[in-house]
Amino acid sequence: MSFGLNREEALAQLKGYIQNENMIKHCLASEAVMMALAERLGEDRAKWGLAGLLHDIDIELVEGDLSRHTLEAEKILKDKGIDKEIIQAIKFHNEKAHGEKRTEKFHHALAAGETITGLIIATTLVYPDKKINSVKPKSIKKRMKEKSFAASVNRETIMECEKLGMDIDEFSRICLIAMQGIADDLGL
User: Fold this and answer.
1) Which 3 state secondary structure label does DSSP give 68?
2) Which of 34, 119, 122, 186 is positioned for an S-S bond with 52, CB 3.0–4.6 A?
3) What is the pLDDT of residues 70-87, one digit of tens each?
4) In 10 A of CB 150, how many CB atoms?
């Protein structure tokens, strides 16, 4: 099934809008997480992966302004013929831009999935070897409870995993394993 762009075209578009290498790595991590969540939930891996890959395509364009982030993405992606459900999930991962609440499984997965990538990376970086393959799921859960650790990571958003029928243990394990699968791409 076509969603407007194939994966290679989507990555090229992302790199056309995002210069920051760490932001590109975040999008790659989000893509991996979304594909793993899709697999677990019986959803379309390519569709969910594309949403993860493109979810922050406008972040540099709007200079990190959360009141505009995803609204520009919506315009960009519509112009590129991206599937409307993907655009909607991307739009809804940032509720601050439009004031509407997430209601769909796809929306909750993207919001929780892209958010936990930050916690997983922060956890990796405090390990002596700074290698994601050394990280254990219990470490993610432990860091989740430490509000001062990676303080900018919204724990409430991560806990939307419960709306997917998963507890934090299962969710963090799935997401960590997904990111470990692309450790080289992440430089971790």
Assistant:
1) coil
2) 34
3) 999 999 999 999 999 999
4) 18
